[in-house]
UniProtKB/TrEMBL annotation:
Gene3D superfamilies assigned: IHF-like DNA-binding proteins
Family of the protein in this entry: Belongs to the bacterial histone-like protein family.
Alphabetized PANTHER family for the sequence: DNA-BINDING PROTEIN HU, INTEGRATION HOST FACTOR SUBUNIT BETA
Name of protein: Integration host factor subunit beta
GO molecular function, one term: DNA binding
Any one GO cellular component localisation term in the record: cytosol
Amino acid sequence: MTKAELIEKLSEKTGLSKVQAEVAVNTTVSSIQEALSRGDKVELRGFGSFRVRQRRARMGRNPKTGTSVDVPAKKVPYFKAGKELQEIINQ
C-alpha cells in the first residue's frame, strides 16, 4: 500500500476530504519522524512500536573491488510488530 492509497482509504472510511486525509497522514508520519529523530520511542498499541537502534562501526567490503571499507557507526529506525498485528498476519 502506498501513501496515496492510505490517504484514499482514510478518506473513504472517515468521510474526510482527500485533502484533510492527506493532512492527517502527513501529520502522523512527521510526528513519528520527529519523535524518532529526538531518540524517543513511538508505540501504537495493537500495531507496533518504532525505535532507533545504534549500529556499531565495522569493517565492510566493497563487492566490486574487494577492498576493505570502514563503515561508520550510525542510527537506524527499527519497527517491531505488535501482538495483534502478528496475529492478524498469521491467520
